[in-house]
Amino acid sequence: MKHLAFAAGLLGASAAFADTPELTVYTYDSFVSEWGPGPAVEKAFEEVCGCDLKLVGAGDGAALLARIKLEGARSEADVVLGLDTNLTAAAKATGLFAEHSVSADYSLPVAWNDATFVPYDWGYFAFVHNADAAAPADFKALAASDKKIVIQDPRSSTPGLGLLMWVKAAYGDEAPAIWEGLADNVVTVTKGWSEAYGMFLEGEADMVLSYTTSPAYHLIAEEDGTKAAAAFDEGHYMQVEVAGKLAGSDQPELADQFLDFMVSDAFQSIIPTTNWMYPAVTPAEGLPKGFETLAQPAKSLLLSEDEAAAVRGTALDEWLNALSQ
Hints:
With 325 residues, this protein is an alpha/beta fold. The chain is built from 13 helices and 12 strands.
């Protein structure tokens, strides 16, 4: 009888497990790391969804779209989290994403009315450096200096692509000359943000492409005020990170629930001190202490998704030509 009872218990547990719906979210590697938002987001959402949230790291942000294109309608993903406005036009063009019904009181510096993608955080790209070292005040000064920088590959990384858009938005037709000047400063180009930032922390470069919010990590998590973001006179390019539901999802209602959850306090309060970005919806308790010390760009730069799509190929060619010489 004991064996029968045990067997029945196992069968019951297996049936319960099988009945638990699973939501698969493709995102970037740093999001799912032990120090990223992933673990806290997974715990918080599973407490309200009655589901198993499966967060899958798929390289850096720009690599997500390439993977979705490759997998097409066969993709196991229900939601993709980690694209940005430099990629949303290309993502929509695949026909693989469905519209959402999320409504939120966004704290973004720009109006948001995208029917396909939901923003979850935002920030400004910047070169982070040691605070006790002088920093150039624009791209031309950086190119003229002997500063060694680490950047990310725009073909796999959203910060890398953001840098191309930053130079293009600031300099337009002068962008090729800017890249020719910067080529000697580039120590290496990494596939993703984590590798680049790690190299900077290990002293392999003077500056790294990151965000104006990155020093908050060192200040809040490490009580270390030795990192700063260089303020550039041309302005700083803005990044708005988004998530979208795949049209082929076999859990469309659960995907909708996740997108709604994403703009709630439970999710948004996790973002500032794990993803080290500004939340898309300011939590009720506001931003953590330390964020008020961050550099505020005098000028914001942002190409529309259509403008970004239109110049992406040209900007990539300009970058490749300069760095290959």
